[in-house]
Amino acid sequence: MISLEDGIMAVKAARAAADAETSGMEPNVQIPAGFEKMKTGVFVSINEAKSGLLRGCIGYPQPPFDLARSLVLSARGVCYDERFPPLKNSQVPKVVFEVTFLTEPELIEYETTAELMSKIEIGKDGLIMEYGRGNKGLCRNALYLPQVPVEENWTAEEYLSNICMKAGMQNDAWKSCALTFKKFQGITFAEKEPNGEIVRK
Questions:
Q1: CA pair distance 166, 174, nearest whole angstrom
Q2: What is the dihedral of CA 116, 121, 125, 126, to 10 degrees?
Q3: Dihedral over Cα of 91, 81, 67, 99: its sign
């Protein structure tokens, strides 16, 4: 879906956009040719270089605009991930950037919890959980990229429990079979170190 060359350029573009955002400058980034004609989902993640801990992750699973704009907006937005203090410009050289391109989310049809778990492949599938969308009452949703359960060494059951908790629900909410789940795959490109070599993960 995305070549290594384009993936490398995308990560460099994400870093440049975040650097510009945190310094109060207008972003001047080089976007791979063709991104303006694509509407692929994309997420930008940053991790602390020394500890490897997550510092931010923002993106669009189904963007209403082209990939070029989605990439830049995600890179700028990751500087303000509400789970963390805003990223300072002095911290940009101390984090590693990664960009994940998403396939179109696919609805998981299931009738039992066992069937749901059987349709999720750890290491391949990212998840989107939705509850109450379209209703005026409680609405919940959450997303995990495919690499998260691998990094956390989760089973399928732990994966489902954690995505429910991320959405502010009980960890066993998925067992009610009342939630909507979608799965997607991703291609991730990441720096090995800040401003260092970029590889496909």
A1: 12
A2: 60
A3: positive
Which pLDDT does position 189 carry in this prediction? Answer: 98
* Contact status, residue 142 vs residue 167, Cβ threshold 8 Å: yes
Q: Ramachandran region of residue 76, left (φ > 0), alpha (ψ -120 to 50) or beta?
A: alpha
Task: Give the model's pLDDT for residue 137.
Answer: 54
Give CA–CA dist 154/180, Å, rounded.
20
Q: Is the pLDDT of residue 27 over 80?
A: no
Decide: 92 and 19 in contact? Cβ < 8 Å. Answer: yes
Separation CA 52–CA 190 (nearest Å)? 12
The whole-number pLDDT of residue 136 equals 53
pTM: 0.91
| Alpha-carbon span 132 to 106, nearest angstrom | 18
